[in-house]
């Protein structure tokens, strides 16, 4: 083999090494971009929720244990997307009211919506509970609350969200929101809450929010 042939093969090997180094560098850059994108998608800031007010159109109980609750309540809830580069799709959000972990209203479906960067959404759903029997283990506690003239309820929102970065949309995440609301009924009479036909409570209560990956 001539010296010229050896030099030719040496140059070819150098070109192949350079191409391999460039390919590896491009792959590393691509992987870094994918890792950053995945981080941006999987680690967004959770939306913030605020329970602005609760309007009680009806809140009645039976006169003595075992208690049965009937409620008609309108809620005003605001949500803010704190992210500057990530949008949020809200899908199948159900809102309902609980008393000491017992659900006392049916769930109301909030409208599907998209929340852009730093956008604020406001919902005002009505929730109903028609003749809901209170659990036996809560009878005494509810009796004490009614005699005291106040009770703590929680407004809960459960559903699914998706994150949007550019044209890319993530899989579904579970969303859980819990908003405590302290209701005062004034001076009770005979163990029952006393109120006018409509009671509106201004709260502006910040809610606890959890998001977890899931279907």
UniProtKB/TrEMBL annotation:
InterPro entries: LEA_2 (IPR004864), NDR1-like (IPR044839). Its main location: membrane. The chain crosses the membrane at residues 20-42. The keyword Acetylation does not apply. Residues 76-179 form the Late embryogenesis abundant protein LEA-2 subgroup domain. One of its GO terms (biological process) is defense response to other organism. It comes from the Eukaryota. GO terms for cellular component: plasma membrane; plasmodesma. It is a single-pass membrane protein. It is found in: Membrane. Keywords: Membrane, Transmembrane, Transmembrane helix. PANTHER family: LATE EMBRYOGENESIS ABUNDANT (LEA) HYDROXYPROLINE-RICH GLYCOPROTEIN FAMILY, OS05G0367900 PROTEIN. This is Late embryogenesis abundant protein LEA-2 subgroup domain-containing protein. It comes from Cannabis sativa (Hemp).
């Amino acid at each position: 083999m001539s010296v010229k042939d050896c030099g030719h093969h040496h140059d070819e090997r150098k070109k192949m090494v350079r191409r391999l180094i460039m390919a590896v560098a491009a792959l590393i850059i691509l992987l870094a971009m994918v890792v950053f994108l995945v981080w941006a998608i999987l680690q967004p800031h959770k939306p913030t929720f605020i329970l602005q007010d609760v309007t009680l159109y009806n809140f009645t109980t039976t006169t003595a244990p075992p208690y049965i609750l009937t409620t008609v309540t309108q809620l005003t809830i605001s949500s803010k997307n704190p992210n500057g580069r990530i949008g949020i799709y809200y899908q199948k959000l159900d809102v309902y009211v609980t008393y000491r972990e017992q659900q006392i209203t049916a769930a109301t479906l909030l409208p599907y919506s998209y929340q852009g960067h730093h956008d604020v959404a406001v919902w005002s759903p009505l929730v109903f509970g028609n003749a809901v029997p209170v659990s036996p283990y809560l009878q005494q506690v509810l009796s004490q609350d009614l005699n005291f003239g106040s009770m703590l309820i929680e407004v809960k929102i459960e559903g699914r969200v998706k994150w949007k970065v550019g044209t890319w949309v993530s899989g579904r995440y579970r969303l859980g929101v819990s908003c405590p609301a302290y209701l005062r009924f004034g001076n009770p009479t005979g163990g029952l809450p006393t109120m006018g036909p409509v009671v509106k409570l201004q709260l502006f209560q910040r809610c606890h929010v959890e998001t977890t990956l899931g279907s």
